[in-house]
Design a protein that fits this description.
By secondary structure, the protein is of the alpha/beta class. It is built from eight helices and five strands. Helix 4 links the parallel strand 3 and strand 4. Helix 2 crosses helix 3 and helix 7 packs across helix 8. The protein is elongated.
Length: about 180
């Protein structure tokens, strides 16, 4: 999913997943790329959310591999939906960082082929695969994309009027100014 900030990407995903939890049983893990110190921390966060235990990224990778492959237990592993919000922030800014950080995304996007894992990637960059990802990684994202367009002035006016309508100390001119900005 992609779109400029504030268009409802994350809110939409959360709403849909909450509704799905009423009918289906699955684990839901959300990781925000802006809130991790290193892209490798995604492994530790995912492992912690699924197992309740902490592990360094290298250990977490091994344990997640075992977890998604059925591991040493005979019990069935529940499906997991991993929401990677702000995925573009996981890539870094320099070319050497990008290659290193892309390896994290590459490994994550490999797991759904053989594991009960679905990944929803949310980016602020509309053309992330074409502009910032190598061919190997871009191909893992699949063809299904949902683009969130920026709100138009009339849409923003309706939102502001609905939110602030008659119970607001703001004048109509002030609301219009806010919608245009």
């Amino acid at each position: 999913m992609s779109g400029v900030p504030g268009t409802g990407k994350t809110a939409t995903v959360r709403t849909v997943l909450k509704a799905m939890l009423n009918e289906y049983v699955f684990d839901w893990v959300e990781v925000n790329g802006m809130k991790v110190a290193s892209p490798h921390d995604v492994y530790s966060l995912l492992y912690h959310r699924l197992s309740g235990r902490k592990a360094a990224p290298a250990t977490a990778i091994k344990r997640l591999d075992r977890h998604f492959q059925g591991g040493d237990t005979s019990e069935k592993v529940r499906h997991c939906v991993l929401v990677l919000d702000e995925v573009d922030a996981l890539l870094g800014n320099t070319n050497s960082n990008k290659r290193n950080h892309q390896s994290v995304l590459y490994r994550l996007l490999e797991w759904p082929a053989s594991a009960p894992l679905s990944i929803i990637a949310i980016a602020n960059t509309m053309d992330l695969p074409e502009r910032q990802l190598g061919g190997r990684l871009a191909s893992r994202l699949g063809m299904l994309r949902v683009n969130f367009s920026p709100y138009t002035y009339p849409q923003l006016m309706r939102i502001l009027e609905r939110q602030f309508g008659g119970d607001c100390a703001m004048t109509a001119d002030a609301l219009e100014y806010c919608a245009r900005k």
